[in-house]
Design a protein that fits this description.
Blueprint: E1 3-6, E2 9-11, E3 14-16, E4 21-22, E5 27-28, E6 33-35, E7 38-41, E8 45-48, H1 56-66, E9 74-76, H2 82-85, H3 88-94, E10 100-102, H4 104-114, E11 121-123, E12 129-133, E13 136-142, E14 152-156, E15 161-165, H5 184-199, H6 203-215, E16 222-225, H7 236-245, E17 253-258, H8 264-279, E18 284-289, H9 295-304, E19 307-311, H10 321-332, E20 339-346, H11 352-362, E21 366-367, E22 372-375, H12 380-383, H13 386-394
Parallel strand pairs: 8-9, 9-10, 10-11, 15-16, 17-18, 17-19, 19-20, 20-21, 20-22
Antiparallel strand pairs: 1-2, 2-7, 3-6, 4-5, 7-8, 12-13, 13-14, 14-15
Helix pairs in contact: 5-9, 6-7, 8-13
The protein binds MU-OXO-diiron.
MU-OXO-diiron (FEO) binds near residues 79, 84 and 166.
Amino acid sequence: MRKQVKGNVSWVGYLDWELQLFHGHDYRIEHGSSQNAYLIEEEKTVLVDTVWSPHRSEFVENLKREVDLKSIDFIVANHGECDHSGSLVELMKEIPDTPIYCTKSAVKSIQGQYGDRGWDMRVVKTGDTLDIGNGKTLTFIETPMMHWPDSMATFLSGDNILFSMDAFGQHYAVEDLYADLADQDILWGEALKYFVNILNPFAGFVAKKLAEIEAMDLPIEMIAPSHGAIWREDPLKIVGKYAEWADAYQEDRVVVAYGTMWKGTERIAHAIADEIYRQSPTTNVHVFDVEASDKNEVMTEVFRSRAIAVGSPTYINGLLAGVEGWLAFLRSLKFKGKKAAAFGCYGWSGESVRILQDKLAGAGFDVVEPSIRANWVPDESDLSAIPDLVRALLAEPANADV
Ligand code: FEO
């Protein structure tokens, strides 16, 4: 069904209550999600984006109930990723001659996925406009790496709505459509989780693009992303949050993340957490067994933290597989300006701590000493270096106040 957004703009997307995973198994969904598509009905009728292919038939049938498909003058494809372009094939069977406005890279993405079907693809660049009648225009803004190279946003004048694509979205199904009607704790938690797990690797691009959009001086009154709730009250608050998050964000928090075989490495993890409390009672500490935890939640905590301690026992000359995979994901998120320490138990060869240090450095962390490396079961002499490890983790960088 359609839901009115503002003026002659309606939401015609798909509320995905059942979605549990996104990007394969890389993102666990906790509160549903949505693929937002929008219909603009001025002198010209415009469809902004579609929904993921499993919902394509329902999407096209719903759309038919709301509008004569043949009356759609233009389609705007803000992004080629299949959660937004996945119904195009089904839709274009009905209206094969309707022009599709998108970036040059989106042509590559759409044709790469669905083949060159002879659709009328019209390439746009930042600043290009499209007159849709009644004194309103669409202005296109390329937003590469928000979230893939082909992404763009579209600004509708008059109603002053920025269709921002993935940026400013959340994996959160909100029946009432608007952010101000959603549960605020879930909304902001999901907005942050989305930024950390989807956009943080491209934080440099995000910061630059936000400055560019600000310089365009668009009178933005509403931000309508492609996932989750629409920002209508104080819409620039989420833009401000993105600027903050994109600037090597951190709070007075520390994550202790580990995998364990026989609870020895876990014991060191708990001892490190206790020592952080002893040295700095106001520092917020979170301890996670990474093999048993939601990695998106752990990464969101890592993003908020100023330092992490990571542990694994030595397992067949390496790390536990769960820790190894977790570290690969950590590296992909490209965190900046954080310290890290390593710890772990071993029975025989004992390489895990050195491997952890190498991998943490490779992931962009400032690795501190000492580490904790305990043979068999950690005893008091192994744990005696923990106060120094914690002091090094909590120490301000030498140039902190410069
Ligand atoms: Fe929601 Fe990058 O797709």
